[in-house]
Design a protein that fits this description.
This protein is an all-beta fold. The protein has no helices and five strands. A five-stranded antiparallel β-sheet has the order 4-3-2-1-5, with no helix packed on it. It is globular. The two termini are 13 Å apart. The relative contact order is 0.30.
């Protein structure tokens, strides 16, 4: 669920710096860990939320 207007664990986002869509699976020391919405599981990281745009908040559950 989005917190204070920032993406949070479970939110589906578009990572504008990579052009990929993903789901935030963890936040470790300020680094966002994402997995793809579809396809093979290969995580990537975003070092801030600056380039992450929430497309579906977790509470809507579209990516479950």
């Amino acid at each position: 669920m989005t917190r204070n207007g920032k993406p949070w664990v479970g939110d589906q986002v578009t990572d504008k710096s990579t052009g990929r869509e993903g789901v935030i699976t963890d936040i470790r020391e300020g680094v966002y860990v994402l997995r793809p919405v579809r396809g093979p599981v290969s995580e990537w990281t975003a070092h801030s939320d600056e380039h992450l745009a929430v497309t579906t908040p977790r509470e809507h559950g579209a990516h479950r």
